[in-house]
Amino acid sequence: MIDLGTGDGRFVSAAAKKNPRKFYIGIDAAVDALRKPSMKATRKPAKGGLPNVMFIQAAVEDLPEELDGVADEIHIHFPWGSLLAAVLRGDAGVLAGLRRIAAPDCMLEIIVGIDPTRDRAELERLGIPDLTDEYLREGLLQKYTAAGFEYVHGGRLAEGDWAALETSWARRLSGNSNRIVASLVLRAV
Questions:
Q1: Quick count: other Cβ atoms within 10 Å of Cβ 187?
Q2: Could you give all domains of the chain from N- to C-terminal order, each with its CATH number?
Q3: What three-state secondary structure class fits 82?
Q4: I need a surface site. Which of 33, 112, 149, 181 has the fewest CB within 10 A?
């Protein structure tokens, strides 16, 4: 399982604790965010270490070739900045990179959270269109289909559904009734 934009690695670490027989990779472009979770993961298991976890510093635009075809799941939860722009604009190069690291039948889950008022300046700076259902289902989905993914399900999430995710951003963003949280789940074909 690969978590892109892993940040502090909370999602990866929680999943690895629950499933010690599965291998987890957290990837983030910001090396500073990866220091603490990397150090924790390398401890002895008796001291909270996670031998089934690895963190990699890399940009989504330049994913390591060593990851080609290894992911049975790819998660992108609450991306921001260039990662948000890439997944919501359907950047062809990034989508090709996602498909490259995906094994056959790999599940790709994207969860984005936008407050149209508070985030307006950043959305405009990144060139991200309004997150209408029409845009998500038609304009964006076509780009993912062209990159080798098929639609499984998606739509807006109720706060109770997304606030329970084991991510720091899910916790920070909860309690904002203006936030639009949408998911898109696809499968590599």
A1: 15
A2: 1-58 (no CATH), 60-189 (3.40.50.150)
A3: helix
A4: 33
Residue at 125: amino acid letter: R
In angstroms, rounded to a whole number, what is the distance separating the alpha carbons of residues 175 and 155?
19
3-state class of 179 per DSSP? coil
Q: What is the pLDDT of residues 27-74, one digit of tens each?
A: 999 988 888 888 989 999 889 899 999 999 999 999 999 999 999 999
State the greatest distance between any 2 C-alpha atoms of the chain, in Å, as a whole number. 50
Q: Quick one: how many helices (H) and strands (E) in the chain?
A: 9, 7
Average pLDDT for the chain: 90
Give the tens place of pLDDT for each residue, 72-123.
999 999 998 999 999 999 999 999 999 999 999 999 999 998 888 889 999 9
- Distant-in-sequence, close-in-space partners of 95: CB < 8 Å, separation ≥ 6: 143, 144, 146, 147, 149
